[in-house]
Amino acid sequence: MQASKGFTGEQQQRYLRSILLPGFGTGGQKKLLRSSVLLVGAGGLGSPAALYLAASGVGRIGLVDGDHVSLSNLQRQILHATPDLGRPKVDSAGDKLKALNPGLKLELYRENFSRETAGDLVGGYDFIVDCTDNLQARYMINETCVKLNKPFVYGGVLSWAGQVFTILPGKGPCFSCIFPDQPAPAASTSETGVLGVVTGVIGAIQASEAIRYILGLGELLVGRILTFDALSTRFYEVEIKSDPDCPVCASAGRE
């Protein structure tokens, strides 16, 4: 097959099934190749999200995680394998992503997301994927993205369920509109457990939101929380509104 204009033969074959999609085409693939996505967290959610973003042809991916691979991670964090035990997660993840798509430009940050580096990290990417496992980091991501007008998608999992929604600053509610106060430390997966498959479902939806935002296709989960219950195999959707008194986004202005 002759390569389309602007594509090598290898790229044409690699991304053919995407290019064939109505509304996607070569133009959409070129958008992905020019795009950049930052994933905060290379664990349960970051693994499937990063794999699908790399496979889809997102040109530049950043991974932020200061943790190392442990045995208890392997039940759900599918970017890592037994030989990776003890390695920095971003290094382990980076090897798998480059093996999947050698053309990917990968940027690894062996650190935890912090206020000192948040602005520089978020400011350098088109879209942010929140794959963290602690509320403090989530609030920092939200505040930074609203301040810099950067879109991001939140994902959370616990036990048999997970939820996901997308924040477009100025065009809908932010994370603080929904959770205005940072609650006391809640149960974590290390205490209650989590079904590994749930992280795969939610992480894949996060990747879908990022891809469709970049392409400008479909309806994003803005103003809608989508919850997946693995025990009943049901999805539930709840509409959410912007808080006119939100301390984070009310002053930023909305459309």
Q: Would you kindly provide a written description of the structure presented here, covering whatever features stand out?
A:
- By secondary structure, the chain is an alpha/beta fold.
- It has one domain: Rossmann fold, CATH 3.40.50.
- The protein has ten helices and eight strands.
- An eight-stranded mixed sheet has the order 3-2-1-4-5-6-7-8, with helices on both faces.
- β5 and β6 (161-167) form a beta hairpin.
- α4 (46-56) packs parallel to α10 (196-215).
Helical residue percent band? 25-40%
| CATH homologous superfamily assignment | NAD(P)-binding Rossmann-like Domain
Q: What is the domain total for the residues? A: 1
Would you tell me which CATH topology applies?
Rossmann fold
Radius of gyration: 18 Å
| Tertiary shape | globular
Q: Can you name the CATH architecture?
A: 3-Layer(aba) Sandwich
Strand order of the largest sheet: 3-2-1-4-5-6-7-8
User: Uncertain spans, ≥5 residues at pLDDT below 50?
Assistant: none
Biggest sheet character? 8 strands, mixed
Number of strands: 8
Q: What's the CATH C level?
A: Alpha Beta
**How confident is the prediction overall: mean pLDDT?**
93
Q: Please state roughly what percent of the residues sit in beta strands, choosing from under 5%, 5-15%, 15-25%, 25-35%, 35-45% or over 45%.
A: 15-25%
> What pattern of helices and strands is seen along the backbone?
HHHEHEHEHEHEEHHHEE
Q: Give the N-to-C terminal Cα separation.
A: 46 Å
Number of helices in the DSSP assignment: 10
Structural class: alpha/beta
